[in-house]
Design a protein that fits this description.
alpha+beta, elongated, 5-stranded antiparallel sheet, 34% helix
Amino acid sequence: KEAQPRLRAALNGEPQQFRLASMFPDGRKHHLDVFQFPYRGPSGVEGVVVANHDVTDTVDLIAQLSGIAQKYRNLFEDAPVMYVLLAEQGGVPVVVNCNERFLLVLGYSRDQVIGRSLYDFADTESVRAWSQGNHMRKAFAGELMFEAKTLISKSGTAVFVMFKASPEEADSQDATRLLRGTFLDITTNERLRVALADSENRLEQPV
């Protein structure tokens, strides 16, 4: 149906370019880029030259990649661990994206997190450790980071985490280099460890 008005327009002297989907005898839906050029003779437009370019493989590949990208976004949002994407601004790691788990655990809304330094959500000792030795700069340069850190929730509660940072693959050479940060919540384990240590210390004390 789409091809007929396009053909009429070409016969009226207007070059046409459009994409057409059609079922082929092989049972597969093919995608064609169709080009229609008016053929002019002494009396005006005498016909139309048609060229078809089969782009089915390209269209199918784009659809597959889009599906993969959506699965990646779903994984990022629904993961049981906390994720952040960080961009370096003036030597400071700034949050440019995060998943819902990060917001839920720390008690913030998205607009209270995006654009702020990661240091705003960590305790003094963690910030000092990140800052000294240029740990974050090294991570942005490609060095993997895996460290125990403490985040602070909006209510002031300490959240003990294992923090892993690795460079996010850039879409192009000119793209801003991002750091992907993963936080595994080990608060329960840490509190059990401290409680066990306290119990052992009390048992060792003389009566």
